[in-house]
Write a structure and sequence with these properties.
Chain lengths: ~350, ~270
């Protein structure tokens, strides 16, 4: 009963339906296992697709919503908004720096701009524009960067952003989000629109398993306990959260009781949730489709080092750039899989302070 | 058309603004003298003749907006804002000091009347373009003025922004280029030639108007022509860096050097402020 109560408390931003599901998950892990697999097979949504729909919906509700793109509106999915609201859509052409600057001006003029391009160009090419024109003045611009991480695939390392979360997280005034799936993306986009200030939202190219219910909510600065556990905690962000859930199932088969947290808000980080997991499970694995330097792993380590020193294994890109290949093969090549999370958990249990 | 009286009034205002600029730079012993003095006649005409704005209501939604893309000329902007009544003139003495609302470069979150944060060259114009777009989306008839340096034209982002201004036909945007011909490392034509400035903007489909950046009447006419243009306008204003006091004029050295005690005394004498 204790773990049930903890569990319900942990799910602090999900609907009551979701809470119930998580509770059920506690009682009937086998049931959830089947559910997760069913979801993985049937419900796959690209976060960028969810963004396109959510942006269109916001545009219908609020005339202050404007969108900008840099010649990638078909890929970032702002094209649907552009089609319905041509007078509120500004294509910057292949000029990301100017796109961010124009977004800043639109925000200073009272609009709520959503500016989109690939993550590598948003956080990379336009970094100083985001710093000076958005973060420094705390302007109300949402940078929605799609094609984050290595699952960009065939375009190769030049187009695979593995450092954007670290770069964006380093900026004062910035909020950095990395949702797990389609439903959470839609909720995160709505939350960002309702939030006053600059937000960086990292989305992916490919379809990813649905983890959250359709009606889920999103609270900036809050993480979610997706599965209770007492032996080790797997903390995922983006598409790695689904892998963390899968790994927890595998670990359960090995008699290891793994907690799973999802961190959709990289900054601000839900430090209370992370520290609680560290105190209660004594071992932390972070999982991200990003460099282990400065992203989720970095943020969690900073939090733990100051608040509750705990053994950590960071699963992510080990300070290397990606390369061309199909997304699933790349994830496997760079060790971003449920199996690798299981291995990391087994390793960390060897050095866990008991 | 500016009346003779209005011209004289603005000339006197510019003289007094020069005194304010030099005093505040002398007080802080830090800041940009040359570019503030080259820009001040343009800004005097904008703030005290051309633009509709109200210091008692800085958030007035129908106001014209001024973007100092060459943000290092902040002392010129602060002198204008204080004179217009956005904050007490005594505040000018706190320029660049710890805790002052008058930052080294313009900060919209700290200084009343400052529209956006600038200072990193090339970024202000994009923001001005965005402000002009916002005016169009919101159905406002107010205008946006952006002041650039000619050295700043070396930033690639400027041309991205100019392309956008022309593409989106932002007739509510007026760009002024303060062409003083100097930058930190020397003459712009030696460091990285930006000319021919007017022809470049014309090639980007802008309506180009040339003016004498220290002649109030010339500037007044340029702004009047810009107001009725159906295309976004660039006023290419020929200026002299450090204009107003000969010791500072046309010298790269005074780009980022504040006046000494002696230089201030000479300046006050020349400007009739002693």
């Amino acid at each position: 009963m204790k773990s049930l109560a903890l569990c319900a408390k942990g799910v602090n931003r999900a609907s009551w339906v979701n809470r119930l599901k998580v509770m059920l998950l506690q009682i009937l892990p086998a049931y959830d296992c089947g559910l997760a697999k069913q979801k993985a097979n049937n419900a796959m949504i690209a976060t960028r697709d969810a963004y396109g729909k959510a942006l269109l919906e916001l545009g219908r509700q609020n005339p202050k919503i404007v969108a900008l793109d840099a010649d990638l509106s078909g890929s970032t999915k702002t094209a649907q908004f552009a089609k319905e609201f041509p007078e509120r859509f500004f294509n910057a052409g292949i000029a990301e720096a100017n796109m961010v600057g124009m977004a800043a001006g639109l925000a200073a003029g009272g609009m709520i701009p959503f500016a989109s391009t690939f993550a590598v160009f948003a956080a990379g090419r336009a970094f100083e524009q985001i710093r000076q024109s958005l973060a420094y003045p705390r302007l109300n611009v949402k940078v929605v960067a799609t094609h984050g991480g290595i699952t960009v695939g065939e375009d190769g390392g030049s187009h695979q952003s593995i450092e954007d979360l670290a770069i964006m997280r380093s900026l004062p005034n910035m909020t950095v989000l990395c949702p797990a799936d389609g439903p959470e993306t839609a909720a995160a986009i709505r939350a960002a629109a309702a939030f006053e200030g600059p937000v960086y939202i990292r989305l992916g190219r490919g379809k990813v398993p649905v983890v959250f219910p359709e009606d889920c909510s999103f609270e900036i600065g809050k993480g979610v306990t997706l599965r209770e556990g007492k032996d080790v905690t797997l903390i995922g962000t983006g598409l790695m959260t689904a892998m963390a859930l899968e790994a927890a199932d595998e670990l359960a088969g090995k008699g290891i009781d793994a907690r799973v947290l999802h961190i959709g808000s990289i900054k601000p980080l839900d430090e209370d949730l992370v520290l609680k997991a560290a105190r209660e499970t004594g071992a932390i694995i972070t999982a991200e489709e990003h460099s282990v330097v400065g992203g989720l792993g970095g943020a969690v380590c900073e939090c733990l080092a100051e608040g509750c020193p705990t053994p950590v294994e960071r699963v992510g890109m080990r300070d290397v750039f990606g390369q061309s290949g199909p997304a699933d093969k790349l994830l496997e090549y760079y060790g971003l899989t449920a199996d690798k999370l299981v291995e990391a958990a087994e390793r960390i249990l060897q050095r866990k302070v008991r | 058309m500016l009346t003779e009286q209005k011209v004289q009034e603005l000339e006197q205002a510019a003289r007094e603004l020069r005194v304010d600029i030099l005093k505040m730079l002398h007080q802080s012993q830090s800041g940009h003298t040359g570019g503030s003095l080259s820009a001040i006649d343009i800004m005097a005409v904008l703030f005290f003749h051309q633009m509709k704005h109200d210091a008692s209501c800085p958030d007035w939604s129908e106001r014209d907006r001024f973007v100092l893309s060459k943000g290092h000329a902040a002392p010129a902007l602060y002198a204008c804002l204080a004179r217009a009544g956005y904050f007490p003139k005594e505040d000018l003495a706190t320029l660049r000091q710890l805790g002052s609302h008058l930052q080294g470069h313009p900060d919209m979150r700290k200084t009343p009347g400052v529209e956006v944060c600038t200072g990193s060259l090339g970024q202000g114009l994009s923001q001005a373009v965005g402000l002009a777009m916002a005016n169009k989306v919101a159905g406002r008839t107010s205008r946006v003025f952006a002041l650039l340096g000619d050295g700043e034209l070396q930033e690639g982002q400027i041309w991205e922004a100019v392309m956008s201004a022309a593409h989106y036909q932002l007739s509510n945007l007026c760009i002024v280029v303060d062409c003083n011909g100097l930058q930190i490392d020397g003459f712009t034509e030696d460091v990285m030639n930006v000319g021919p400035v007017a022809a470049k903007f014309a090639a980007f489909n802008m309506h180009v108007i040339e003016a004498d950046g220290h002649d109030i009447d010339s500037l007044g006419q340029a702004f009047a022509a810009a107001e009725v243009s159906e295309r976004p306008v660039v006023i290419v204003a020929k200026t002299i860096k450090g204009k107003g006091v000969s010791i500072f004029e046309n010298k790269a050295k005074y780009h980022g050097l504040a006046p000494s005690d002696e230089e201030l005394q000479v300046s006050l004498q020349v400007l009739g402020a002693l």
